[in-house]
Amino acid sequence: MTSKNRIARLAAKDRMRVVGLMSGTSADGVDAAIVDIDESRRTTVRLLTFDVFPYPPALRRQILKLCDPESARLDDICHYNFVLGEVFADALVKLCTQSGIALRSIDLIGSHGQTIYHNPKGKRYGRRTIRSTLQIAEPSIIAQRTGITTVGDFRPRDMAVQGQGAPLVPYTDYILFNHKRLSRAVQNIGGIANVTYLPPCSRQRDIVAFDTGPGNMVIDRIVSLATRGRRRYDTNGKMAAKGTVDKELLSEMLRHPFLRRRPPKSTGREEFGFSYADRLYQKASKNALAGADIVATATAFTAISIAQAYQRFLPAMPDEMILCGGGAHNAALVQMLQQQLLGVKIRRMDEFGISVDAKEAVSFAILAYATIKGLPNNIPAATGAGKAVILGKIVPA
User: Fold this and answer.
1) Which residues lie closer than 8 Å to 272 by C-beta, 6 or more apart?
2) What DSSP character marks residue 374?
3) How far is 149 from 107, CA to CA, in rounded Å?
4) What CA–CA distances, in Å, run from 144 to 77, 164, 218, 395?
5) What is 170-352's CATH number?
6) Spatial distance between the Cα atoms of 373 and 118, rounded to a whole number of angstroms
7) What is the mean pLDDT of the chain?
8) Is the pLDDT assigned to residue 309 strictly greater than 90?
């Protein structure tokens, strides 16, 4: 059977078992989720299993070097694109082994890969501004090692029609959380924080979605600096809870120009990465702020930047916030969010049958499903794209 015929048979299926693989801006490891998607009546998504497969410390350090234009090398980018393809494939094989789900039962893989650079503002080339993005974890390797058709490289097609290539999850938020009566804000707090606003009975053109600013990225870096590398993140927000927010430093942080930029907009390590956090930490240390106070201030920065984004850019305050991502585990951050968003009911994604940590991986499974079905799966209102397009590149098994 030809590859074309195999893909056509796959696209004709009403029920499909799909894997989502991704690694976020924090570059902690591979998130892997296996879901069953059924559209025989209406589209239903059931999470079967999920796990995170951490990168070895040396590999994580190398990935972070690739994210920095000052330290990245072309030969390393080339090499680690293929290394991460192997690592992503291994993660799926391990997930199948530990869950008892047969690898051969999986129909499709959607892999976001690992972003190492994202430039939604673009650079001039001749008379045009060219936007660009780069994700590594070669999907050809994943397809070859697993024997499963793989969809990868989702962002570039949106950029080809003048979108920012992000955020991509609003399509899946629309599938999963559109409600007849309630307005909802699906708030992911990963390295970067992003929101999808769904008014009641949403149509795709009604969706508002954008990156609100930093999520855990600045907090994590400051925790690492304050503990001299002994901790990589603030477990349950305990460090922030012991500190006091410095109002002067917080006020300076909230003047960051990205926060006032109107959507569509996206950001990443380029604006809120190590260099940004390091400057803040050095300045705060010179002002004799204790480590816990700097962490508390960074945590307040994330919470208030999210709340201000709602106030500035959403059509109305949501009835509910559905919280996912690593930030959902940070009790201090969640408490600050609730203080800033009085009247908004905060719910964890676990209540909807998807763990707060699995949401992003599940999203790329759904995006891959739409791609193989030939369904446009960007949301132009969110990315600024000129039209709806089918995202991703299909690598037949």
Assistant:
1) 192, 213, 214, 217, 218, 258
2) T
3) 7
4) 20, 30, 37, 9
5) 3.30.420.40
6) 27
7) 96
8) yes
Beta strand 208-214 pairing with 192-198: antiparallel
Q: Under a CB-based contact definition with an 8 Å cutoff, are residues 243 and 296 in contact?
A: yes
Q: Residue 85: which of 129, 172, 150 has the closest Cα?
A: 150
List b or e across 277-286, with b for residues whose CB sees 16 or more CB atoms inside 10 angstroms: beebbeebee
Enumerate residues 6+ apart whose C-beta is below 8 A from 318.
182, 183, 184, 185, 197, 310, 344
pTM of the shown model:
0.92
Q: Which helix (H) or strand (E) holds 346?
A: strand 345-348
Please enumerate, as own/partner, the contacts of 86-91 that have beta carbons within 8 Å and a separation of 24 or more: 86/141, 86/145, 87/30, 87/53, 87/55, 87/59, 87/137, 88/21, 88/30, 88/113, 88/137, 88/141, 88/142, 89/141, 89/142, 89/145, 89/146, 90/53, 90/145, 91/21, 91/30, 91/32, 91/53
- Amino acid letter, 134: L
Integer Cα distance of 167 and 112 in angstroms:
12
Average pLDDT rounded to a whole number, residues 141-165: 97
**Angstrom distance (rounded) from CA 108 to CA 360:** 17
User: 272 near 192, Cβ under 8 Å?
Assistant: yes
The arithmetic mean of pLDDT across residues 207-234, rounded, is: 96
d(CA 226, CA 326): 20
Cα distance between residue 314 and residue 308, in whole Å:
10
The span from the CA of 81 to the CA of 134, in Å, is 10
Question: What does the chain come to in residues?
Answer: 397
Q: Which pLDDT tens digit goes with each residue over 154-180?
A: 999 999 999 999 999 999 999 999 999
Integer Cα distance of 152 and 156 in angstroms: 10
CATH 3.30.420.40-classified regions of the chain: 3-165+357-395, 170-352
Q: Does domain 3-165+357-395 have CATH number 3.80.10.10?
A: no
Return the structure tokens found at 393: 């590149």
